[in-house]
Amino acid sequence: MSNKIYVAFDGTEFGTKQALMEYHDLLKLGDEAFAEKRKQYLVLKEAQTKACLAIFNFRDQCEHEYVKIKACSDTGNYDRSQDSYWYEIECKCCEDRWNEDQSTSKYKTSDRNTEWIR
Ligand SMILES: [Zn+2]
Fold first, then answer.
1. β-strand 114-117 against 67-74: which pairing, if any?
2. pLDDT given for residue 2 in this prediction
3. Helix (H, G, I), strand (E, B) or coil at 97
4. Statement: residue 3 has pLDDT above 90
5. Ligand 1 centroid, distance to 61 Cα (angstroms)
6. How far is the CA of 64 from the centre of ligand 1 (A)?
7. Exposed (0-12), middle (13-18) or buried (19+): which is 36, by Cβ within 10 Å?
8. Regarding predicted confidence, which is higher, 81 or 93?
9. Strands 13-14 and 6-7
């Protein structure tokens, strides 16, 4: 996602040129009630886009220090090399979720910051 900002005549900021142009068209439009409502929506949508990007960046920077972990396995396969062990992890700070192979994970059962789910 690009960080370029498009600023309207009245100072309202948009993340896309398309939204800015529609906003300008609405300002010129005769039906003020509709223009005002649509403008409100575009501004909300813009705030949502910014918040989503902020959350994405927050998760990217998060150290995931305090986590909940469930140890999972798929064992008893005829071909033992197909057996697998992994962690289902959820960060208690940023609520990000992901899976990791148990053998390469940095999280250990002795970690004090880790809550183990059974
Ligand atoms: Zn996190």
1. parallel
2. 54
3. strand
4. no
5. 8
6. 4
7. exposed
8. 93
9. antiparallel
pLDDT, residue 4, reads 84
- Does the pTM of the predicted model rise above 0.85? no
Answer yes or no: is pLDDT of 1 > 70: no
Closest CA to 93 of 118, 116, 53, 61: 61
The alpha carbon of 105 and the centre of ligand 1 are apart by a number of angstroms equal to 15
Residue whose token pair is 């992890």: 89
DSSP letters spanning 32-69: HHHHHHHHHHHHHHHHHHHHHHHHHHHHHH----SEEE
For the record, the structure tokens of 44 come out as 């909300």
Mean pLDDT across the chain, nearest whole number? 89
Q: What is the DSSP letter of 75?
A: -
The residues spanned by each domain of the chain are 6-61, 67-117
